[in-house]
Structure formats: structure tokens, C-alpha cells
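DUF5615 domain-containing protein structure dump, as promised
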Amino acid sequence: MKIRFLLDENLSPKLKIAVLRLNPAIDILRVGDSDTPPLGTLDPELLNYLELSQRLLVTDNRKSMPGHLEVHWESGGHIWGLVWLRSSGTIRTWAESLFIMWEASEAEEWIDQVDWIPF
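C-alpha cells r here:
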């Protein structure tokens, strides 16, 4: 199964556009889009949504997300992957990294995996 992405609401909508320009077949949504959690959704609820929807989270939330992720795992939860954006990256490099992930791997390879992009 191909990776399905969910962008955190704090990320620029331009990132979604940049990814889709590389390949419009990529399934990428942003928090607040239709059929996603609404803007302002708390991290624990977001992690539950990600598990049920089988989406990999793309975020720059380094403050609260790590702790919530640990609690989620300790309670027996799983995620379909999470990538943090390096502050040294640009929309272009982040989009290219997501495209490479989508092209080169399957969603199942990312279960409970956490990484940084650009790589």
C-alpha cells in the first residue's frame, strides 16, 4: 500500500501543493481539510486519527508530540509513521523528500517509525 500523508495544521498549505506538483496521485491531506480532523485538534486525538486512517504524519511539532507519541505507544497504540521537518529544509526539499518516500517505500514499512526530512 502506498503511503498516505497527513500534514500538521502548522505547516504551510504550500507544502501540499508542492508535493502534488511532483505527482498528483499522492494521497496527501492537511489537518482542517474535509474528512480530516478539524483545526485545533489535540495531539492525542490526532494520533488516534492517524492510526485509524492509516496516514503518516508530517509535522514540525517537536514540543508536545514526542510525549503524546510515547503515551500513545504505551497504551498499545500504533502509528503509520511520523516525520519531523528539519528547520534547515525548504518547502521544495521537504516536498522532494516526501515524494521519494512515496516512490521508494510502502506504508507498512513506516508503521511505528519516526524520522526526519530532509534525510
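DSSP finds four helices and five strands in the chain.
lmk if u need the other ones
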